[in-house]
Amino acid sequence: MALVSETEIFTESEWLEIVNELSLPPRQAGVMKYLFLGHSDKQIAMELQISVPTVRTHLSRLFSRFDVQDRTELVLYVFRYFRKNSRANGCHR
Prior knowledge:
The chain is mainly α. It has five helices and no strands. The longest helix has 18 residues.
């Protein structure tokens, strides 16, 4: 199993599992990944080489899709989803 660095919450394999299970398009997955690393909209835009308004559009679509109000709720939603699925599969994460 891959080790998780100090700034990452999920291993690469866990992240790919989440992305697949939530059917995230590549750009939304990228935005969310950097969101989980604590990046600002500007930092996400720089990392993904897109504009800040585009980052905000992706975030808005993610908020709408998962029926959350802000980035904190989005992070909690994904984390709860991961924990629920892990426990359902017999893992005690």
